[in-house]
Amino acid sequence: MSKPVWLFDLDNTLHNASHAIFPAINANMNAYIAGVLRAAGMPDDAAAVNAARIGYLRRYGATLLGMVRHHGVRAEEFLREAHRFDDLRVMIRAERGLGRLLRRLPGRKVLLTNGPRRYAHEVLRHLGLHRHFARHIPIEAMQVHRQLRPKPSRALLRKILAREGIAARDCILVEDTVDNLRAARALRMRTVWVTQYLAQGPHAAERGLPTLRGRSAGVDVKVKSVLQLPRSLHRLRGMGKHGDDKTG
């Protein structure tokens, strides 16, 4: 494996979004979805709203896509309303040493987040991590053939590989979401599952929090924290070559 290109997720990978940010986003989404359902003469109670939000997330990888496809909402409006915060700065929780970690890891780093551009910019600015990323790819930039294709879209990942000019085996996706890792692994990227911010318990999904699930076939390396990545480098390098590297 030559020097890799690292694709880093943001929420629940580089910081603890489950602490306060995800609950606020989910509340904002629920309020917005309720208004859309109500305007269409559809049930807008809590059960109907949660079913729409969680159902679209599971079906498309992002609630946004379901709202756009089935309710005709404008993507930019949905993202703006979902990411309204009184004071985002005080909601952010993250480990110390992230900057040192990113400097230590060999290769180029790209931020790949299903969050919107302004939100991702503000979180990285607060964490002091902007300078460590060669590129930022927020959800607005996840376009394939002029269609929005956020993670876990394989078409999106193929496009990123082509744009970066790299083989799949030289790319490492670092994520908290198993479905996204599985899509990357199917293209023969290396995958790292970060688990420390994932919720446990039967009601976590109902609250809209990402949950900790068992080890998946899409996971090469499982770590609790991104700070553990350096000790996993030898394993990731060893997985870098196994047959051809066609990405479909």
From TrEMBL:
Alphabetized Pfam families for the sequence: Hydrolase
Superkingdom assignment: Bacteria
InterPro entries: HAD-like_sf, HAD-SF_hydro_IA, HAD_sf, Pyr-5-nucltdase
Keyword Hydrolase: yes
Record key words, sorted: Hydrolase
Alphabetized SUPFAM superfamilies for the sequence: HAD-like (SSF56784)
GO molecular function: hydrolase activity
NCBIfam families, alphabetized: HAD-SF-IA-v3, Pyr-5-nucltdase
Protein name stated in the entry: Putative hydrolase of the HAD superfamily
Organism: Noviherbaspirillum humi
